[in-house]
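Q&A log
Question type: sequence-to-structure
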Amino acid sequence: MKWSKLLFLFAFLILVHSGFCQDSLRNKRLKPMIVAGAVTYSLSLVALNQLWYADFEREPFHFFNDNSEWKQMDKLGHFYSAFHISKISQRGLQWSGLENNKSAFWGTMVSVLVMTPIEIFDGFSAEYGASTGDLIANSIGGLLFFSQYRLWQEVRVHPKYSFNRTDFPDLRPEVLGSNLSEELLKDYNAHHYWLSIDLSKFNDKVPKWLNIAIGYGATNLVFANDDQNSAQGFDSRRRYFLALDFDLNNYKSKSKVINTLIYLVNMTKIPSPTLEFSKNKFKFHPFYY
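Response status: OK
Response body:
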């Protein structure tokens, strides 16, 4: 990406400030946060370009269709990230004085600004290519957050992530990860994504801490495509889950550090009894994450 485009993105965020915070100009928190966010955002794009893409040959912008790869587990990662970037940004804007509907809208726009440049970088890289599937997943993640906030003024369906370490990275460590930190990002066999439904928000007789979670995962993903896996003797398949979950959003502390930790923990699926459906069979796990 050219420097002129980075400067444009910086200027755009400043213009966003002038457009959406007319009713909050007297709030001392909002202006510094917008300026600091714009600077951080621009510097992050420069760093991403230099650290990740600088060593790859550049090509004219192009798309690459990876929608059939990895049983779409990578797409769920985009969805999950876009949702939580929207939510965290909304909370920051709300804290800065922006009213609820505007903070939800512009928080969602922040996720677009954060996620879209990655696809632009990919599109100009000979190693990759922009992915329409990634762009769609990014949009759905942001829309899930925004639509809930407009409908209920709160989030009632929470995307969550869990990780169950596997032995598959030993077979292809350069692709699936050579250590735990890499596996957390690369080993799709170990990843699970959930939609945790806050039952108490629909029925006040249900305990506030009790949720029900619908999950998705996959296994035997050593290669990206089913044909490659089959050729090597791996029966790649999808896995579906239904589980109890525990919601911590209603528990607040006077400590900002503790509240931040609670938020981070609540982004993950807490281990619990789980029913799995895979290969046309049900399996019960007394304790699964």
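Response note: The chain has nine helices and six strands.
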